[in-house]
């Protein structure tokens, strides 16, 4: 069971959280203006990352808030967690998703 | 008879005799014995029959690594635990144990014929032989194989015991309480860090318990253990757990511990759980798991009486049992000499020490020879004899690649040792990287993946002083890593000990080109022959060889077999051991009962049960319930003599003709509040809410951004900035989650707050032409007249003096109201309405009737008429979409071309040609009769009922281009023949909707 740092509550066990998909997939401001390809990309296309993945979690059985995380999918180690709306933090080693 | 209790020594309590039975025969042992030590003391040599060949097997080890001596311990029919290692079963008065995998008896087993047929039963024999006919596998082959090849049998009754679960946090968790673990716990806890120390054995001390003559800092080993544990126990920051196995290493330093609380007691107290699961989150883990002696691989090495040298020493020093009267030791390590020397000192005859190393020399050999023991070097074992136990061993002496000299030596126990394999199981489970150490011929921990450290012999440290000092150092370092500072400690140790270094355990044979039938994996009956066959058949990856031969895949997880299998494969393939590589270590370290994982989550506590405030009333009325998610909902209220069909018909007629009462409390309810509440709902739902007046409600449809229906419900505007949103019963949680997602992450600028109020409101639906008459005498501050309170009107007032939100709405097509009152008043108000309705013939109805009534009106149920691929237009709900809105969730997807294709599946009604036939929900629909499989399926039935008011069956269906097919005849192929149906509109009753506005 992973130990996840909620940016609002601190470290909590995985069973308090729900995974919520890839992070930084912004809904287009005016969806009607998107091309079919752009809309398809937004709706369906996601990364399948081996390495650092930016993803959303929700502390659903805690503060109930959504936040973002950088997790290494090969080790399950969380490199950073940060609040929704905040920019993706720069990692010490300069790694990027 | 070979083993016996010696006159003195051991840690057993000789004053406390314990009676027990094994295979129905009574025996006596001492308090402190294990089943294995007590049976050995009684001269028992055969403990069980092997998995595949049914060969007689004895006890091979003294700890959790035991591969052979698996037994069933029976307390009663419900408490019958199979596959326990006799070496770990603590003796208690009245213990009843049975051997396994034998019939009719241990000494005479019919299926031992398998052993004679062993040339016919090679690796993967079952895969190769029972290929066809395919149908025979389940009916014939598998049952026979399962009976013949198997281990113990599970209990026949449900488990009556309690299993508990606990979470714990600590700074340093020390796994293993041998010398390294105790030393680590002592230094770490002296720093003030919170320390947990666990060990799988009933007492702490590990291998030190086998060292009666050792002294540590001037105290005997036993006194040092006692004092150290007393010190630890006196510290408030220390938790000590015996009989507790660290079975799994999970991510982020979560360790699973299995504590066995009452298994060792003759009369387990009823107020204690039988076992406990600990989930320990540790800042640092110290693995002090020790090491396990490696067997030697030679022909006949599985005969009862062949045993690890370290095990013989444990039986001698811990239990006062000599495992034989006349023993032979075959060894590839110095350490094993201690076993022969100690048994010799205890008066046991040591017939021969056969050292397999040609260059063996030095202290242990000199001491043995001085004691008058015959020692040969460069030896190998060519075979053993003895039907139910070893009686003779044939030793060969190698020289220049050939066997020069053979001799037969009589013995009743054959001790073996190939050196020691460090226990890296937990380290490997933590995803740490192992490295092969040539000098030790072993894999040792190298790079950590988690915050942990190995200490002592599990990381290849040899010698008690070094192990103790390593433990102390690692304990101090681990405490420091958690912010607790302490000095490490140096121990002074006096002990007779020899090096644990060894060699790969497969002994050379006279004709080494012909792999002999020597056992590598005792529990799964895998021999060198099987491994060689696998390689001949082309398997080269050790992971494939493992799976093909099943070596290392038994319940012992290959604790004694993996290194020897690996060494044999490496030498056959002509590669080095690290090139061949290790198979993955998997949890659990030793088998763990399902009970601790289930914990309290069984029976009534398996899943939460949600009931409405009126639940007990419905129970008293004899309602039949159905599960809707976690909710219990009344399905119908049968009267004496009624079946479901009759009850539902009566309930339907009552609602259509008079008035019915329905518990709708399970509907999801979300209070949406704030200056931007209307904007928020308009962006989410397809409908417009900006124009919805206070005191009005609207049927809302929620899509996902892919354009498909996600949920529906009625949304009422209670005030300018306050909406009462209802969702489907099953969709409540996910709709709330979706709303929070959009509000928090897409539109965080909106001033709007969401509160789930599902369980705060009791909802009583009063439906039917007489509904107004029933409610009128009960309400105050409310005008029920149609002009003041039209269809979809909403008002607040009181009912029976209780505050109420009253919705005029209908899921039946009749005049209807939904009375929302605070949940605590639900039952009282329900009873008042029921009483008031008596003069109108008010009839409580359930979900089945609700389903029929709404289907007569063509109202959909999300999840029944929809399946995640249905758009509002598909469902005939295109009218609900506010076309003028610039955007709502799903709008862009609805603009996709394919969403308007004329051949999309659309919701239609179906009427069977025979009005008595009710279609099956889920049945497929075809356009032309007489098709053969594969038929061209153009749709499926989503709902089908008998309609009492129409006096015939009705159905709803999703059909390709369905609305254009209205009037056509389609067919529903069923096992009894095709059913002709006519396509109709979705509304079967009161098409104009006049009744709704009554």
**Whole-number radius of gyration of chain B?**
38 Å
What's the order of the H and E elements of chain A?
EEEHEEE
Secondary structure tally: strands of chain A: 6
Number of domains of chain B: 6
Please tally the helical runs of chain A, counting DSSP H or I stretches of 4 or more residues: 1
- The CATH class label of chain A is Alpha Beta
Q: In the CATH hierarchy, what is the class of the largest domain in chain B?
A: Alpha Beta
Structural class of chain B, by secondary structure, is alpha+beta
Annotation, overall tally of beta strands of chain B: 53
Q: Using CB atoms under 8 Å apart, which protein chain pair has the greatest interface?
A: A-B, 27 and 26 residues
CATH architecture of the largest domain in chain B: 3-Layer(bba) Sandwich
Task: Summarize the structure in words.
The complex is a heterodimer of chains A (about 100) and B (about 1000). By secondary structure, chain A is mainly beta. Chain A has one domain: Folate-binding superfamily (Folate-binding fold, 2-Layer Sandwich). Chain A has 1 helix and 6 strands. In chain A, the strands form 2 sheets. In chain A, strands 3-4-5-6 form a 4-stranded antiparallel sheet, with no helix packed on it. In chain A, β4 and β5 form a beta hairpin. The longest helix of chain A has 9 residues. Chain A is globular. The model of chain A has no long low-confidence stretch (mean pLDDT about 95). With about 1000 residues, chain B is of the alpha+beta class. Chain B folds into 6 domains: about 120 residues, Roll (Ubiquitin-like (UB roll)), CATH 3.10.20; about 200 residues, FAD/NAD(P)-binding domain (3-Layer(bba) Sandwich); about 60 residues, BFD-like [2Fe-2S]-binding domain (Arc Repressor Mutant, subunit A), CATH 1.10.10; about 140 residues, Probable tRNA modification gtpase trme, domain 1 (Gyrase A, domain 2, 2-Layer Sandwich), CATH 3.30.1360.120; about 90 residues, Aminomethyltransferase beta-barrel domains (Alpha-Beta Plaits, 2-Layer Sandwich); about 100 residues, Beta Barrel (Elongation Factor Tu (Ef-tu), domain 3), CATH 2.40.30. Chain B has 24 helices and 53 strands. In chain B, a hairpin with a 2-residue loop joins β52 and β53. The longest helix of chain B is centred in the middle third of the chain and has 18 residues. Chain B is elongated, with a radius of gyration of 38 Å. The termini of chain B are far apart. At the A-B interface, α1 of A face α20 and α24 of B.
